[in-house]
Amino acid sequence: MDIKLQQVSYAYSIGTPFEKYALFDVDLTIPSQTYQAIIGHTGSGKSTILQHFNGLLKPSKGQVHIGERVIEAGKKAKELKPIRQKVGIVFQFPEHQLFEETVLKDIMFGPMNFGVSETEAEKRAKELIKLVGLPEETLNKSPFDLSGGQMRRVAIAGVLAMDPEVIVLDEPTAGLDPRGQREIMDMFYTLHKERGLTTILVTHSMEDAAKYADRIAIMHEGKCVLNGTPHEIFSDAKTLETYRLELPHIVRFQQKIENMMNLRLSKICLTEEELAEEVSRVLRKGRDYQ
Amino acid sequence: MMEKMIFGRFIPGDSFVHRMDPRSKLLFVFAFIVIVFLANNVATYALLLAFTLFVILMSKIRLYFLINGLKPVIILLIFTFMIHILFTREGDIIFQLGFFKVYEEGLRQGIFISIRFLVLVFMTSILTLTTSPISITDGLETLLNPLKKIKLPVHELALMMSIALRFIPTLMDETDKIMKAQMARGSDLSAGPLKDRIKAVVPLLVPLFVSAFKRAEDLATAMEVRGYRGGEGRTRYRQLKWDWRDTTSLASLVVVTIILVVLRN
């Protein structure tokens, strides 16, 4: 399911003296089955933009295409439920949305709202609890007896249980320990690959964006200022600097190596493996050149 | 939805009224509420209205905010106006339509009551619009201080009030977030039969309570680790200062009261 934003602007408190634009003329197309990262500084409009992906916010100007549906400024949008089933959003700190007596019921809440039968919902819950890395016994516990990290996993399972085609992640690993962060990001990546989930990751982490995304969009002061592949985006450190964004660790490491050894690699490397290979290749050849 | 709430909001500014001491503002409003009831004829109501307009000018608050503050009470206002129109049967009939008769006295009373409402709402709105919640509590605490003698926990009350005020926006944000998260999971708060809508409130209220209790606990811990031990021997960061503005405004209120007493029947 393609998602397309055309000339989207959004203002909070419209029609009052507190009116404030958070998005200006954003154009962004996210084709089906891509892994799109959206990065930007705090207050750049990242969180506002993601609420347009399933009709939680309606553009003040412009159009949002979600698959076949069009949500247009100034027009009443009816029956948003089918969209919300297809586009799942994992909000920041999703553990705040847990409310049921048991983990099982909470995971079943989403699918049952969309008319999935109880047996089917239960089946999904049993599958997903393992997928997010928790033992099946967890299903009978109260979500409020779990640790923060476990609650996060349950909440994610609750969104995945709706069986969405598109999943929007707003800083899904904020506040988790490094290992938990890696596990969750890897899980989303596997889902993206295996089930062909279109994945939209809103993040601060350049590392995650570099590692997982097919394309990276950069938001700055309510505008979408850049959109390209990770290699394109991270090759241009100067432009990133103007948007107050840093390069990923691995690219900064590459720059250090280049300066130290006084050489220039043919491309920007985004993983350790890539960098090691590139460096060794240059070193092996290097003797002949100098 | 929540972001449209304007009633009870503080609008920072630098006007005469903004710079008044919260104590004098509180006293002023309380006294004003009392003297409003002195008015009982055209001259006195005109005076009240003029005085209120003068205060609005002094506060440099845009009329927009005051009109907005009126919105929650507009129905009450119309209702009381209609009651007077319909049930007061004194004086000449000025309008008749079958059974329906409007008496002169009824219209008079209706208009008077409406003006009374209007000036009361405007004055109290000006108080909250020009005074930050923190200064209101500070002012209230100092004004109530004498009641400590009869063992009223004044400091604790003021603290409770400021904490409550402080967390209203936070809780509103929180409600908004949780509502959106549950809507994204297919819960529908704004459509469907009433029964379903009431059911849809549970997924909203439970997380809200959980987070409110958690916040309260965190706040208590944070206060304790920073050595909070109640009001005893506590100094203030914001010193309240009574200056010429406060004296002048209270004096002007006294003058208005005297004129009211003279002019009323």
Which helices and strands appear, and what pairs or packs with what?
The complex is a heterodimer of chains A (290) and B (265).
Chain A: E1 3-12, E2 20-30, E3 35-40, H1 46-50, E4 61-66, E5 69-72, H2 81-86, E6 87-90, H3 103-113, H4 118-131, H5 148-160, E7 166-170, H6 178-195, E8 198-203, H7 206-212, E9 215-220, E10 223-228, H8 230-235, H9 237-242, H10 249-261, H11 272-289
Helix pairs in contact in A: 3-4, 3-5, 4-5
Chain B: H1 22-35, H2 42-59, H3 63-70, H4 74-87, E1 93-97, E2 100-103, H5 104-130, H6 133-144, H7 154-184, H8 194-199, H9 202-225, H10 244-263
Antiparallel strand pairs in B: 1-2
Helix pairs in contact in B: 1-5, 1-6, 1-10, 2-5, 2-10, 3-5, 4-5, 6-7, 7-9
Description:
Chain A: It is found in: Cell membrane. Chain A: Residues 3-246 form the ABC transporter domain. Chain A: This is Energy-coupling factor transporter ATP-binding protein EcfA2. The complex is a heterodimer of chains A (290) and B (265). Chain A has eleven helices and ten strands. Chain A is of the alpha/beta class and 290 residues long. Chain A folds into two domains: 3-247, 3-Layer(aba) Sandwich (Rossmann fold); 248-290, no CATH class. In chain A, the strands form two sheets. A six-stranded mixed beta sheet of chain A has the order 6-7-8-3-9-10. Chain B folds into two domains: 2-131 and 241-263, no CATH class; 155-225, no CATH class. Helix content of chain B is 66%, strand content 3%. Chain B contains ten helices and two strands; from the N terminus they run H-H-H-H-E-E-H-H-H-H-H-H. Chain B has helices at residues 22-35, 42-59, 63-70, 74-87, 104-130, 133-144, 154-184, 194-199, 202-225, 244-263, and strands at 93-97, 100-103. Chain B has a two-stranded antiparallel ribbon with strand order 1-2. The radius of gyration of chain B is 24 Å and the shape is flat. Chain B starts with 21 loop residues before the first helix and ends with a helix. The mean pLDDT of chain B is 87. At the A-B interface, helix 2 and helix 3 of A face helix 7 and helix 9 of B.
